[in-house]
Amino acid sequence: MIGFVSALGVSLAFIGVSRPARAQSSPGPTYVSPASTVPAPADRPYEGRIELQVDATDTRRRIFSVRQRVPVGREREMTLLYPRWEPASHGPSLTVTDLAGLVVEGAGKPLRWRRDPYDPHAFHLSVPPGVDAIDVRFQMVAGGESLTPDIVSVPWQRLVLYPAGWYARNMAVAASLALPEGLRPFTPLSVQHSANGRIVFAPTTLETLLDAPVLAGRYTAPMPLTAAGPGAIFLDIVAPRHSDLLVPPERSAELRRLVAQIRAVFGPAPFERYDIMARLSDDGSSGGTEHRGSSENGLASSYFRDWPGQILFRDLIAHEIVHAWNGFYRTPADLWAPTPNVPVAGSLLWVYEGQTEFWGRVLATRAGQFTPGELRDRLAIEAAEIAARPGRAWRSLSDDVNYPSFMLRQPVPWRDWQRRRDYYSEGVMLWLAVDAELRDRSGGRRGLDDFARRFFAGATPDAPTRLYTFEDLCRTLNEIAPADWSNFLRAWTDGHDELDTTIGLNRHGWRLIFTDTPTASFRASEEEAGVADLTYAIGLTVRDDGVIRSVAWNGPAFRTGLRSGVRISRVNGAAFTRAVLLEAVRTSARRPLSLGIDQNGAPSEIVLPYTGPLRYPRLERIAGHADTLAALLTAR
Question: Which three-class secondary structure state does DSSP give residue 292?
């Protein structure tokens, strides 16, 4: 039997080798790819003008009501689109879920519409002969914090349907807006007249309208930061209370210096007027949204009066203004789209956002919004965070820029391993390295100021958007200081574990170190996140109630099996408090660090494999190296 089985095995093996397997189709259906029924945008004139009326008075239910009249051309088949992509988010951040109650009429009679089965943001309809315009009504039911009794923010991109088949810049729109009584509006749009609670704006293009939000409030304070005239900049404050409107003289002086520093780097403005629309909130700062002639800035209600507490957000306004040049006047070629329903890509987000973040840090310091020491402490946090990114082992910066296309607003349980929007902080490190390289190759005569002055030259208020590519970047850098810039930049953006992301800091005369005392910036970062941040020691952050907020991939806490959401109840036998945990980490070289935890519904005891001190990042001067960072941060 043994011989028979062996022989049979050999025979079967021989048969298997001698008769290679052939791919076969299965007896089942064949997939048919759907043909698009949504007309592609075309650069052609649009006949007529869309009339858009928005009612923002229902603050109790927080519902926007919209009425439109949309001209109909010769085509009897029409598609209306609800915006899907926002320039500031670089991804499909808008959802048609917010649109409800859609009614379309022609000559006073209801018209049936059909949602596209593959593109839910598209609505198809047939227009009867003799109808030269359709009337559209709907509600945007997710007003949320955009629609409150005292503050209203009008997001046009969520309040309009427009016909498919044209570029947004070719469609004329006449918009009007009804606001609650007593609210004062701010917007870069031109106002024709205002009466009976309704503001009528001058006709403009759909492209301009989508880029020109309205912020209105009951307690407001407009503040000019420049003289009147072309390129004038205004700070428009909208606050929860009248007492929040006071801006100390030193803050307004810093903002005026900021404008001067921006102009010194970028030159003529790509806007006729710029509105820094600052919405103050008791919930703290929430970030900004860029536009060509304005920016929306969510700031803490204490922003101007508690300056030490704003160390993480002092450069927000600078960042958003710079986007007028880097992002709107000049835009990465694959980030530009003719309508908000055409997908874009983000291969150069390390320029669009990364270089803008770099300039926000630098210009705010040149204006006095940071001291050089405060800025160095901010850079230390970023340097440590990016240098310790284990996710770079499998995911380079050139892939991280794809974040908006598939990770937008998605939960990320292991951020340092999955990576998420690192093109901001890592962009700062990258452009520090570029500045250092320019200085070295030019004998200290040139830096990124020279790049910005050349790359963003030619801006005027009516200048059309100019697209740029990776090759354009390399060409301009080469004009300033000849080098193989393509390989220099690709080595960084495509790099993995071999990349030293602190090289720019080092070449500027500073090195990243760790000490047992946190900087003021680090403490502010902890307070903003609501945690004790022990990432660089035991590899976790934890809230004051003992719940772990995050765990560093492959750090000491990770190696014991800890994850976010686990609660620490005891530390070395004592009840958990932040102070007790910090002391245990500090003395872990003398006494093993034991944690009592509640994980998966069962209490247990673990010992962390850590015998080091508390570790917090900061920068230290490198002896014998010139401090060119100081030169970079000096006011122009």
Answer: coil
Q: Chain-centre distance of CA 438, in angstroms?
A: 28
> CA–CA distance from 147 to each of 140, 180, 217, 430, 461 (Å)?
11, 10, 10, 40, 31
174-178-182-185 Cα dihedral, nearest 10 degrees? -30
Side-chain-side CA neighbours of residue 196 (13 Å): 2
Residues paired with residue 197 on neighbouring β-strands, in sequence order: none
- Is residue 559 within a helix (H) or strand (E), and if so which, with residue range? helix 556-559
Let me know how many helices (H) and strands (E) the chain has, helices first: 19, 32
The pLDDT of residue 195 is 86
Confidence of residue 277 (pLDDT cuts 50, 70, 90): very high
H helices within 74-231, ranges in order? 206-210
Q: Which residues touch 10 (CB under 8 Å, ≥6 apart)?
A: none
Task: Determine how β-strand 330-332 pairs with β-strand 466-468.
Answer: parallel
Which of these, 468, 383, 393, lies nearest to 427 by C-alpha position?
Answer: 383
**Whole-number pLDDT of residue 1:** 43
Q: What is the pLDDT of residue 100?
A: 98
Q: Distances from the Cα of 185 to the Cαs of 15, 179, 198, 621, in angstroms? A: 82, 9, 11, 49
Task: Give me the residue label for tokens 């450069």.
Answer: 315
Tokens at 374, concatenated:
């405060």
What are the pLDDT digits (tens) for 555-567? 999 999 999 999 9
**What does the alpha-carbon distance between residue 442 and residue 274 come to, in Å, rounded to a whole number?**
35
Dist. CA 125–CA 486, nearest whole Å: 50
- Cβ neighbors of 565 (< 8 A, separation 6 or more) are 547, 548
Amino acid at 337: A
3-class DSSP state for residue 244? helix
The size of the chain, in residues, is: 636
Distance of CA 277 to the CA centre of its chain: 17
463 in Cβ contact with 507 (< 8 Å): no
User: Is the whole-model pTM more than 0.85?
Assistant: yes
Rounded Cα distance between 127 and 80, Å, is 12
Give the chain's end-to-end CA distance (angstroms, integer): 93
Residue of 326, 350, 362 whose CA lies nearest to 457: 326
* Tokens (6 digits) for 595: 């944690």
Eight-state DSSP code of residue 318: H
Q: List, for residues 512-556, the tens digit of each pLDDT value.
A: 999 999 999 999 999 999 999 999 999 999 999 999 999 999 999
- Identify whether the C-beta of residue 213 lies closer than 8 Å to the C-beta of residue 265: no
| CA angle at 447 for the pair 402 and 621, rounded to the nearest 5° | 90
Q: Are 405 and 91 in contact, with CB atoms under 8 Å apart?
A: yes
Residue 527: count of CB within 10 angstroms of its CB: 11
Q: Identify the H or E element spanning 235.
A: strand 232-239
Task: Map 430-487 to HEC letters.
Answer: HHHHHHHHHHHHCCCCCCHHHHHHHHCCCCCCCCCCEEECHHHHHHHHHHHCCCCHHH
